[in-house]
Write a structure and sequence with these properties.
The chain is mainly β. The protein has eight helices and 46 strands. The radius of gyration is 29 Å and the shape is globular. Keywords: Cell outer membrane, Ion transport, Iron, Iron transport, Membrane, Receptor, Signal, TonB box, Transmembrane, Transmembrane beta strand, Transport.
């Protein structure tokens, strides 16, 4: 009998030896919070994994035997655990607080925590990498709730835009490592100035609504909190190249030393992106680099970041006239001369470009003072300088402060010329946060920032096509601006058994002034001093470890931007905006389904809304409305259908209304403005329904096929809801052109396919192949637009301009990791 068992064992031994087993689990801290980014390594064979956004890790294709797991995470004590593998094992590990301070303190002071009564979404480096084929950062966020993205060039490279809950980028607070990124004057965030910043991001948190207190411009639609490169313990080198439609090319090289001597690390990246754009004359030439060096002490971390972006983009910000989009019979028989423009009636100038360089310097310091108290602080400086250049046909000399000139007996009052409008700015300041945890169930944070901005706006005439004796680089206006921004906030989270109580208070002081001669040669001098108090409170009830319900109330205040001031006299200065934000929701996480539903009611006072028109540099014109609101429901979920098939889904329904809105129409007959009061109307660029879907299938190890969908319902491009003043009708010429007859963007449903496959070969840690086919069904749609509605006689004339998005296009990539 013994011999029989021995023979059976001998026969089964090869089968057992060749069995493919796995080790998986979740990495948390001692209170059960996930630690995304934790490093897990094993021996025999040597391999490593990084915990995902939920703290989960896994090793596949392992043979039976003895293994040693080593888990490390900055700010926590490393842990080693022996595992005897005879079957698939689930090994969950909880790490204790360590002696090294966590770099994340720098950004966590302005972030929502696991059970915060706030609507938020976290994206890990892995999440971002899946979609990073070279498009601008807003496109990496397109599948998160309530987000709509747009591209001036039509393909996601160059100038892009983002809206959250219908609010544009001027109302979305953006911080990079806790440092404000929004432009101090326009309050927008121009990610084109940081090409391929996605490749240097470790994680992002998107908050919707007012959210937690943060630094910089007030968050009305939401906030985007970016954390860049963090510590990697082993050396690495990565090369990535993407190529695709419209001459689009992206090349990226990055490398890091890993942890040297237990104290030092150095990381760097360089990137270059080019695209001709889908729209004619919408090319982009972009360059960037990112360098980060860090020193790790027993109780402190010091990190220095230096990063820069350079962009030259052809000006596509004015959009395409509706009659061009709607007329399929048009032909392009233009003849260009050596400067790129055709004749005396056009402005297709070859250097009609925006040219800008932005350099960032950050010094981040984190200190663990005691087991209960930690400090984080940052010094920062940003230097930006650039211009946009344009050709002007038969431009009046009086626009440049020049009287008519007599040359050879002829009086010259206008000439063709080329001008540059410059922006030269400096932004610097300090941010700080003290985190105090007197007991395990109580966290308190005291933080804030002081930042100063100085910006010079000026214009030069660099070329004149009529000899009028103008000096070289003739400066015809200069307007200098200064803005001081101070804020201080205090926040506390108190855990009482299953209840989390949250309170947050912020005081913000702003001083803004500008003086000089503006681009219209008017004496421009204004000052504004604003004080805001932004309280917030919330409660979360935890049913169990996997589900909770929450409610919150927050107040936000937001100052007007530069154009709001410049386009109005001091006696008619726009008012600051006030928002009362009510939020309530339910969240659940489990092995099969993770998701939540959130309801919001955002009540505005004196909201600055878009009129639908653009000024001469493509910026939207706005006006105060006394009463308006946004109310809606957001859903966000992910379900595991089977082990290899997942479905992620988001959906937002909302009503976005203005009460008693008055619209004025210019009268082309020279008469007074025609006004119309609308009792209730829709807020411009606020679709009532948005949704996204990602169906992801992993057929083989390292392989993924994803079908990605995005739906955006109809949205208006002004605040009239396409209503005309009484007694006026659309002109017969416009009535036959649906693009011109309506002041709206039609709904669209766009589908993409993404394929990725990663594998290893000897000498290369990882080889990645990727293909993304965008708009696979070639949906014809416009994602953005502008309108100028006038009256003539008894007719309405709509001058509409749209931003068509690209039909079917692709990007393919290959990456190597060493």
């Amino acid at each position: 009998m013994k011999n029989l068992f021995a023979a059976i064992a001998a026969l089964l031994l090869p089968v057992v030896a060749s069995a493919q087993l796995s080790i998986s689990g979740k990495i948390t801290n001692t209170v059960g919070e996930a630690l995304p980014g934790a490093t897990v390594s094993i021996n025999n064979p040597t391999a490593s994994a990084v915990a995902d956004a939920t703290g989960k890790y896994h090793f596949n294709d392992l043979k039976p035997g003895n293994y040693t797991l080593k888990v490390s995470y900055i700010g926590y004590q490393s842990l080693t655990k022996n595992v005897v593998l005879g079957a698939n094992e689930i090994v969950n590990i909880a790490l204790s607080n360590g002696t090294l301070t966590a770099e994340e303190v720098t950004v966590s002071s302005t972030r929502a925590i696991k059970n915060s009564p706030t609507a938020y979404t976290n994206l890990s480096k892995k999440d971002l990498a899946k979609n990073n084929f070279g498009q601008d950062l807003p496109y990496m966020l397109n599948q998160t709730p309530s987000v709509v993205v747009t591209s001036d060039a039509g393909a996601g490279i160059g100038y892009t835009g983002i809206r959250i809950r219908g609010s544009d980028a001027t109302r979305i607070n953006v911080t990079i490592n806790g440092i404000p990124y929004n432009d101090s004057e326009s309050q927008g965030s121009y990610f084109v100035d940081l090409p391929d910043i996605t490749s240097s991001i470790d994680n992002i948190q998107i908050q919707r609504g007012v959210g937690t207190s943060t630094n910089g411009a007030g968050a009305f639609g939401g906030s985007i909190n970016v954390q860049t490169t963090t510590r990697r313990d082993t050396a690495y080198a990565d090369i990535n190249a993407s190529v695709g439609s419209y001459g689009s090319i992206k090349t990226t090289a990055s490398a890091g030393t890993g942890l040297l001597g237990g104290h030092f690390s150095l990381d760097g990246r360089v990137s270059r992106i080019h695209s001709d754009g889908y729209i004619d004359r919408a090319s982009s030439n972009l360059k960037s680099f990112f360098v980060s060096g860090a020193w790790y002490g027993k109780n402190s971390t010091l990190r220095a970041n230096v990063f820069s972006g350079y962009e030259t983009t052809y000006q596509a910000w004015n959009g395409i006239a509706d009659y061009v989009i709607g007329d399929n019979t048009r032909s392009d028989n233009r003849t260009y001369n050596e400067l790129g423009y055709i004749d005396a009636t056009n402005s297709f100038y070859k250097n009609q470009v925006d040219h800008y360089t932005q350099n960032h310097y950050q010094l981040l310091y984190d200190k663990k003072i005691s087991n209960k108290l930690s400090f984080s602080g940052a010094l920062h400086y940003t230097k930006g300088k650039g211009y946009y250049e344009e050709y002007r046909n038969a431009d009046s000399l009086k626009n440049y402060g020049i009287a008519p000139i007599v040359v050879g007996g002829n009086t010259i009052s206008a000439t063709d010329l080329v001008r540059r409008l410059w922006l030269n700015n400096d932004f610097y300041g300090v941010t700080y946060a003290l985190k105090y945890q007197p007991q395990t169930n109580l966290n308190m944070t005291l933080g804030g920032a002081y930042n100063q901005y100085k910006g010079a706006h000026y214009g030069d005439v660099i070329d004149v096509f009529t000899p009028i004796g103008l000096p070289s680089n003739y400066e015809y206006y200069r307007d200098n601006a200064k803005k001081n921004d101070f804020n201080i906030f205090a926040r506390a989270e108190w855990h009482l058994d299953k209840v989390l109580l949250y309170a947050d208070m912020q005081y913000r002081h702003i001083y803004y002034s500008f003086y000089g001669i503006d681009k219209n040669l008017n004496n421009a001098q204004q000052t504004a001093e604003l004080n805001f108090f932004n309280p917030k409170a919330g409660i979360t009830y935890q049913f169990n470890e996997h589900s909770n319900v929450y409610a919150s109330f927050a107040v936000g205040n937001h100052e007007p931007n530069r154009d709001d001031y410049v386009d109005s006299p001091p006696q008619n200065r726009p008012k600051s905006e006030n928002l009362k934000d009510f939020e309530a929701g339910y969240r659940i996480s489990g092995p099969v389904f993770t998701g939540g539903i959130n309801g919001f009611y955002m009540l505005y006072k004196n909201q600055l809304v878009l009129t639908g028109a653009l000024n001469d540099v493509g910026s939207p014109v706005r006006t105060n409305v006394k009463d308006s609101y946004r109310a809606g429901l957001e859903f966000d979920g992910k379900v595991k259908i089977v082990n290899q098939l997942y479905w992620g889904l988001t959906a937002t329904w909302s009503a976005n209304k203005i009460k008693n809105y008055q619209q004025f129409f210019a009268n082309e007959d020279g008469g007074p403005l025609v006004g119309e009061t609308l009792k209730t109307t829709d807020i411009a660029f606020s679709p009532s329904l948005t949704g996204s879907s990602v169906i992801s299938y992993n057929p083989v190890k390292g392989g993924e096929i994803a079908f990605i969908s995005k739906y955006v319902s109809r949205q208006y491009i002004d605040n009239t809801s396409n209503q005309n003043p009484q007694g006026y009708t659309i002109t017969p010429e416009n009535a036959g052109n649906p693009y011109a007859a309506n002041r709206l963007l039609n709904s669209y449903f766009v589908n993409d396919v993404r394929i990725r496959y990663t594998f290893k070969v000897k000498g290369v840690k990882n080889i990645g192949l990727g293909l993304q086919v965008n708009n696979i069904f070639s949906e014809k749609y416009e994602a953005n637009g502008a309108t100028y509605a006038d009256v003539k006689g008894n007719n309405i004339l709509n001058y509409n301009y749209f931003f068509p998005q690209a039909p079917r296009n692709f990007m393919a990539s290959v990456s190597l990791s060493f």
